[in-house]
């Protein structure tokens, strides 16, 4: 039967959607969000270490992140890593805590971020279409080898279409929510 084909395709599409959600967390919406630090590492005794594995990260205000290194000697390397990253925020420190003040987004910057969301959404939709194509190829091969009848092939194609429509709609809803969040301030 073609149930396994649909399950595998759905699993791959879910991974694509999760990846899309993860990418969106790196887009700054004017609010302090700890996920903006994901992927930023600093040299800790010669080993590249994520900031969240060597410091406490807090959000005391809506537009401020504080980073309190567990070892005070890490303040300078963490601050240097933040300056080298492309998050667009200049850190400041008082010898104990690094502060990341999130500035209010300009209208122009909001529009750039909305374009970025649209780009990520389109890339994810392309990924979904690739998963659909792969599933359809498997269905066609199975029909040629006689593993699936003509009716089963048609049923599989309909299920694949329903599945991609569902995931595409989910991507569009997630993107719309993020764009609304970016434009609300």
Folded structure, characterized:
With 185 residues, the chain is an alpha+beta fold. It has four helices and six strands; from the N terminus they run H-E-E-E-E-H-E-E-H-H. The protein has helices at residues 3-25, 75-84, 107-145, 150-183, and strands at residues 41-44, 47-50, 55-61, 64-69, 92-93, 98-101. A four-stranded antiparallel β-sheet has the order 3-4-6-5, with helices on one face. A two-stranded antiparallel ribbon has the order 1-2. A hairpin with a 2-residue loop joins strand 3 (55-61) and strand 4 (64-69). The radius of gyration is 22 Å and the shape is elongated. The chain starts with a helix and ends with a helix. The relative contact order is 0.17. The mean pLDDT is 85.
Task: From the structure above, extract its key features.
alpha+beta; about 180 residues; about 15% strand; elongated; 6 strands; about 55% helix; four-stranded antiparallel sheet; 4 helices
């Amino acid at each position: 039967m073609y149930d396994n084909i649909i399950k595998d395709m759905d699993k791959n599409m879910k991974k694509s959607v999760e990846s899309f959600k993860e990418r969106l967390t790196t887009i700054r919406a004017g609010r302090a969000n700890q996920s903006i630090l994901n992927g930023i590492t600093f040299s800790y005794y010669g080993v590249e270490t994520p900031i969240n594995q060597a410091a406490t990260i807090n959000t005391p205000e809506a537009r401020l992140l504080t980073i309190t290194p567990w070892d005070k000697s890490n303040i300078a390397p963490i601050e240097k890593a933040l300056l080298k990253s492309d998050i667009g925020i200049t850190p400041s420190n008082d010898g104990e805590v690094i502060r990341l003040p999130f500035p209010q987004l300009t209208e122009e910057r909001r529009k750039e971020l909305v374009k970025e969301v649209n780009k990520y959404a389109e890339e994810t939709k392309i990924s979904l279409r690739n998963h659909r194509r792969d599933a359809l190829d498997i269905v066609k091969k199975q029909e040629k080898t006689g593993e699936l009848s003509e009716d089963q092939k048609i049923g599989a194609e309909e299920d694949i279409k329903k599945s991609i429509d569902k995931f595409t709609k989910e991507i569009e809803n997630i993107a719309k929510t993020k764009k609304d969040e970016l434009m609300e301030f």
